Input
Amino acid sequence: MAVYFDHRIESPDSAGSPSQITWHSSQPVLAVASISPSTGGSIDLYLQQGEHVGNSHLERPFKPTVLHWHPSKQVLAVGWETGEVLLLSQSDGEQTSLPATHSADISLLEWSSNGSRLLTGDRLGALAVWEVDPRGQLQGAPLLRHDYGKHLTHCVFRPAPPGDDLVQLARTAVSGDENALDMFNWRKAVKGRPLKLGPQEGTTFFISTADGSVHYVDEKGKSSQVLLADSPVQKLLYLQGREVLVVITETLLLSQYSVGPGGATQELVKVKLSGKSGQSADMAWAEKGLLITATGEKVVRLWDLERDDNYVLSLDEHLGFEAGETLNCVSYSTVKGILAAGTSRGRIALWRKVAVSNEKMEGRDQWKLQTPADLEGNVIQLQWGSSMNLLAVITVSTVLILCEHVMSSHFSQQVAAVQLNPNQLCLSYFSTGTQLSLRTDMHIKGVCVTKDTVTVWNGKQVTVFELSGAILRNTGSFPCESQAVAVHEESIYTVEPNRVQVRTLQGTVKQLLVFLEAEGTPQLLSVCNTFLVVGTDAAHIKVFDLSRREAKPHCNAKSLAELIPNLGAITSVKSNANGSQVSMLVARTDGSIDSKVYFYDVEMDTLTHFDFFTGRSSEGFQGEEPERGHLETSELCGRCPVSQFWDESEPRLFVCETVLTIPASPHTHTTDSTEQGDVLVVSFFSTQEHRLLLQDSYPRPAGMQALLALRVPYYYFNRKPGEGQVENEGTPGPSSIPQMVSRRALRDFVGLEDCDKPTRDAMLNFSFYLTIGDMDEAFKSIKLIKSEAVWENMARMCVKTRRLDVARVCLGNMGHARGARALREAEAEPELDARVAVLATQLGMLEDAERLYKSCHRYDLLNKFYQASGQWQKAVETADSQDRIHLRTTYYSYAKHMEAMGDRKMALVHYEKSDTNRFEVPRMLLDDLHALEIYVNKMKDKSLYKWWAQYLESQSDMESALRYYKCAQDYLSLVRVHCYLDNIQKAAEIANETGNRAASYHLARQYESQDEIKQSVHFYTQAQAYNNAIRLCKENGLDDQLMNLALLSNPVDMMEAACNYEEKGVHMDRAVMLYHKAGHFSKALELAFATQQFGALQLIAEELDEDSEPALLARCSDFFIEHSQYEKAVELLVAAKKYQEALQLCLDQSLTITEELAERMTVSRGSKDLPEEARRELLESIADCCMRQGNYHLATKKYTQAGNKLKAMRALLKSGNTDKIVFFAGVSRQKEIYIMAANYLQSLDWRKNPLIMKNIISFYTKGQALDLLAGFYNACAQVEIDEYQNYEKALGALTEAYQCLSKAKAHSAEEQECRLAELQHKLTLVKKFVQARRLYEEDPGEAVRLCEVLQQEPNLDPAVRIGDVYGFLVEHHCQQGSFQVAYRTLEEMRKRLPSLNVNYYVSQRSLEAMQHAVGVPLSRGGGVGRGHKDREGEGEVVEEEEEAVETHLGD
Output
């Protein structure tokens, strides 16, 4: 909590009443203008505590009118009523008067944004703009002048547009933008727009006059009127980001105008503001377009221009404000986010702007009213200073400077001191139970207490008070400018540069603790037990031992800057009770608070930390269970520590206060942090061996301001002002003195607050060992304790630590049998938290139990918990949102509870919600029949109608019962009651109209009892009670109705009716049909055969299938054969599994075997119906039959199923399906099948299909039929010779054929040798001819000789065609020009082969040349052959064939 110290300014005696104040924008210097009726006016400057600045007094015999500080220099511009303008320098008191320009009151003084221009204006309308150098000195005559002829009222400079972004401009230039490049080139930049860097100076402005006109002055000094308001302007504001000018008139009319580049304006919005018109309003401009006004009303009005919203802030009498108190003036601190308003009763109302947690939060909810600062007299003006802690206030008589100060407090040796106001302390002595109040004559900035003394200081003086009985006496006061003070026994420790002074209580220095210059100046002092820890501004810490007569260093100075990155300053430093551990809170270099608490181990010289932002220690928690650690540390995440304390006597126990981390905002301040919600108090055990151990964490109790101290068994807290007495243990003091300190017992000491020291130590050891998981030591520490309260307290600890094993021992020592049983039964629950919650419930820790059930999401158990604890509303809400499966059960239980409590109305509501009202409400209201009848009629529920009708029937009120039975649509009861009343005709009407089966059955029984058989049969039929109707028909001979009823009924009734017909020997066709419908086919067939009912027999046989009896099937098949219905007979034979007979019938009667029939006749492999051999024979028989019928594909399939692949292949070959043949051969993998497939493929036109040729070669190869493959190659070679004259390929084919034949296994060696010799001879001849053709290019003569030798071979043809040899020679002679020789050779060829077609062997060109040379016409032979030399454009088929041959022959 913060208070405000008010410092009255030390004004000179000649100064009059203050009239104006203004703070410098960056320095804590306040300028005050005063007016005196006798001396005129004066100007004075003051520092932050009201000290007068020497050489700054400025006095004139006339009044000052306007004050305005330079934005950066310590230069004050002062305007006087004579028209004089003066510049006053604070640093040296120099005064500079501007040249005489104005002759009337100065009404305007305005600096430009960076102070290079000063604008002055007076009441007669004269305006001047002056140039000021960077040192704040005036530069000659004014730059421009204007005379508007009217009183100048307000002015606002228009901010210049931001300068060029140099980084972005450089990136643009690098990317190739020539304009950007030109801007960096000063020569080219002259032609275009110059480069502007950094913030620019705004030299244009708007100025208003008394008649409401607003003028705009541009950069060149040209003035133009841009708008005219309906009344004088009271305020001009400019929204820079939106380029909007805001004008507020004296009639509180607010207008917004958009501003163009040349100053032209266009009206956007005009609204009338609320407030007292005609009265001057004090206005403040907050950030983001928020306008704040005070017009002497009881409220402050705020207008949010961006959101178009407005709201008011009012005072609260509960915080000390009075009724009728009005607000006169306002000022807003952007840095602190605080709005200050001065009241007519001398108070300063303060509203703090809180962080917005929800975008939908209303504007007024963003402001929190604080405790006011009380002054004297009416507050006329106030203004926040450059420092965020300073507020200057003008009252009727003087000027006060309010300096914000955090309330001082201290606790030591069972004594607590809390500051109530600037000069009052509240002291609480917990050891004696007394409470005192201490008032001083100075503003207290700090306090330090011991059991005998109270020491206070204000930064300039230290005063010591001693306790004498119930009175505090001033025992000494001495001057000391120390900002930090600590007290231990009879010594006072103060700081000064580079040392700590040890003083007596009277201020005498008795020892100096010196720090090196590198160690810095001490700033923080803290005493714990007998140890003093010192923190310096150079981030060093040092510990001193105070247990002796003089303070001795306990360790060397330790630099933290080397160990903590981004360390700015130490904000808090504390030592534990034995000086082994030092904890620190620090601030980062950017001024923000570090989220870590640092621990320095003095003996080990090590530094560790715990980070509240991540919830983890630098070394992790030691000895904790993973599940527990995760749950507890998750609560610590996202936090920041704000205070820390060690126990004064227990060195292991440490506690700190943490708040949720709030995103950085201009309103966040460290002094406010503990006022935020969600404050968590976290305690640890810290030891050298186990490091940091989380002991406990809980939210700060409501009504508490801050954590004050820790001393086992209590935490001590400061209370918030105005909070009433809270439940605590032994808070001392009479009721006349405010109780500002409250204490709360540690978790481990609830119920043990008054225990003795051994018990306290034992409990601490138990808690410590329990935290590290050492159960043996934990039980050793408490084994001698016999107190049941101690064991109960330890059981409560087990709830926090989730140690159920320890809890069982504690419950046993407590004798808590019920709790032990509940804990044992809870072991069935899988979640640890659910089991712990059971323990908490048994110990009465209901809040913990509720929290645990929620944490493990066991909402079913939470629901039961709420019910058991009587929290029915929470139980219903939980069931409705999280435990829907038990919602109705919860409503029912709640209803039972309300019924037991006598609240029938609420019970009725919840019975309805549980959907049990149909039974429970009649039961509940049975003793109030009138209410019950009203409820039944109101609900209009059929079940309730029926219940009420039954009740009325039991009371013999049949008429009413009939009415309610009708409402309930209970037709059975209606018929039953009418029959009871002998109104059977009405009952029949109801049964016929509704068709209700139960009603019809009841009525049928009535008719049967009266021997009205037909009516009874009718209603039995309507009730679908066909067996009863059949029974009556059989008994009464109603054979006609019997048949229809039997068909409607079940098979059993059909059988009985059929037997009835059969026994009587009449209507045998009906008997057969009924047997058939009942599924008794054998009986139906037998009766049909016996009575020669062939039509019925036909119908029955059609429904027979393989599930029927084989004998029955065979008999029916014989019947169909006799009647020439062979297809049906075959189906029945197949169903009877007489496959051979069915197959024979198909053959005899030439019935086509379809694929479906064949599949039905196919017995699956492994079937028990047929042996495997018989199965194969059956399949082959089916396939043979299919072969006879020409169904080769089906035959193939059946042969394959029978395992006879050869027959399957033969069937497939007959089908002629080449693709299936190739596929089947590929999957069969049998030699014979490969050969059969290859033989088949040879019968096709393989010459035109290369794929067939490849398959032939592949199949012969796989079938190892090399002799057949050789024959195929020989055939290929002959095709190449005969068709294409391609002897080269023919040679390759013959070679392959020879190789295959030589490898083949022949039946006769002589036959094979003969074939090989024949093939070898053919190969030799072809090789010679090929050699001759190849040799022709190199040696034509030799080639001709070889051909002539070939002509003499006896068996040349068909190996080499004679025509090819002669044709070769003729072509040769023609090429040589020997046409006579060629002609002779041609004639010789004709003689040898008279029928030869010459054109096939000799080209047309050669024949024409020969004819021309010889002169003899050459007759052409018959037939047309195909040559290979002059043929062009052979088809793709030929080319593919040749390629295929080449591939297989390997060229």
Q: What stands out?
A: The chain has 48 helices and 62 strands. Residues 621-631, 663-676, 724-731, 1420-1451 have pLDDT under 50 and may be disordered. The longest strand covers residues 471-479.
